[in-house]
Structure formats: structure tokens, C-alpha cells
Amino acid sequence: MIRIVLAEDQAMVRGALSALLGLEPDLEVVAAVADGEAAWLALQQHQPDLLVTDIEMPGLGGLELAQRVQRHGLATRVVIVTTFGRAGYLRRALEAGVRGYLLKDAPAEQLAQALRNVQHGGRAIDPQLAVSAWEQADPLSERERQVLRLAGQGRSSAEIATALGLSQGTVRNYLSECISKLGVSNRVEAHRLARQRGWL
């Protein structure tokens, strides 16, 4: 029996996924939760074979959750099931050790088979997304991403500097680097484009 923790913030989708997976004779959903922190607790409590998670959830998102699983060396394999078919997200997911990345509009039987593949040591990546992921490299460094995320929340350079323990001049340099790398004219456009491509 393949034991699964499911993390999905939309109640209807969570219920549907849980019911669909429960119909499979070799799959068992041991916990279905609404956010990343609850998923983290469920992982420690149940020590499942697989974590099936969305990317964007309140608080701790799916990518951060995958990074935490990787950092703590948990045996649980991570599969992302999301509406976000963005190449940047896939690249970051793979860097975080994610074994599967599927879109929510895939047929249910495809998901069940993908989970079996991952459980047996394989990968399950949406093929179209895999192609575009390697065509569009993420030009941002991790620090540039942090700065741009905060800028996207409307924070000033001074506020970003305080939040990240940097000088205002360093923050301005990071923002100007982001604007230059993305070929846009200001921080708002840089944030919008980076989000669109899944780099944030």
C-alpha cells in the first residue's frame, strides 16, 4: 500500500483528489490538509511514502515544503499537482528534489500511475512543461528573488533592507540587477514578469 499525505488549500479539489486516490486499490490517503505547515506536521506524524502538494498555499507553499523535506532528509517523495504550468516553477521544484510535477487538468488515472512510478523510484514530469523548462532558464539568484518578492509586496528599499539585513544601497543594486536581467523598466514590471514565468 502506498501511503500519501495530500496538501491542497482548495477544499473541493482536496476532497476530489482524496476520493479519486482512495478508489485505487494500492493507494491510501492517510492525511488531507489545507496548507504547508499542516502538511509538515502530517509528514512527521504519518511518515508517508509520498507527499502530493499544490504549489501556492497559505503560509508555507509547495516548493518551500519540498525544500524542507529535502533539507531534513525525509524519505517521503514529493509530487506537485498544480494549475501552474510555469517552467520556472518546474526548475525550482526539481532543484528541491521533487520527483513528480503534474498539472491538475491531467486525467485521474494518469495521476495514479504517476504516483506509482514515483514510488518505484521514477519521475513523473508533464512532458510539455519539461521541454519549456529547459528553454527558459531562470536568470535570478536566490537573493534577487527575495528582494523582488518583497518589492512586489509594495515595500520600500528601506523596508526591504531592514527585513533582509542589508543596506539600502545593496537592495537598490539587487533591484537594478533584476530589472536589467529581465529587460524591463521598473521593479513592478520585474516582479510581474518573474511571477508570470514562475521564478518567484
TrEMBL record:
HTH luxR-type domain sequence ranges: 133-198
Single annotated GO MF: DNA binding
InterPro entries, sorted: CheY-like_superfamily, Sig_transdc_resp-reg_C-effctor, Sig_transdc_resp-reg_receiver, Tscrpt_reg_LuxR_C, WalR-like, WH-like_DNA-bd_sf
Keyword Phosphoprotein (UniProt): yes
Residues bearing the modification 4-aspartylphosphate: D54
Keyword DNA-binding part of the UniProt annotation: yes
Keywords: DNA-binding, Phosphoprotein
Response regulatory domain mapped to chain residues: 3-119
Membrane-spanning segments: none
Origin: domain of life: Bacteria
One example of a Gene Ontology biological process annotation: phosphorelay signal transduction system
PANTHER family recorded: TRANSCRIPTIONAL REGULATORY PROTEIN DESR, TWO-COMPONENT RESPONSE REGULATOR
Protein name: Transcriptional regulator
Source taxonomy: Bacteria, Pseudomonadati, Pseudomonadota, Gammaproteobacteria, Lysobacterales
